[in-house]
Amino acid sequence: METKTMYAVEHYYTDDRRTYDIFETLCEAESFTSDKNNWDKNHFPLFIFKADFNLELIYQEDNGNWNYEDFSDTILGNYRKIKQMDNIN
Fold this sequence. Notes:
two-stranded antiparallel ribbon, globular, mainly beta
């Protein structure tokens, strides 16, 4: 399987949902986390991670943003937390 190394921002909603957005560079991921318009008291970033993503399950949208199909084999390996922003207890 072909992979592409991507950076992702894991974020949390206070109704216990979690998801992540993916980016080609660490700079883009950090910019996403620092944009206050993305967050509020019920939705906030947890951490940035880097991983190898299944190239068949990620795609670039018309607006240039990256997205992914959420399957168990979307992330294939080399998962590593880069930067912690917040914790949930």
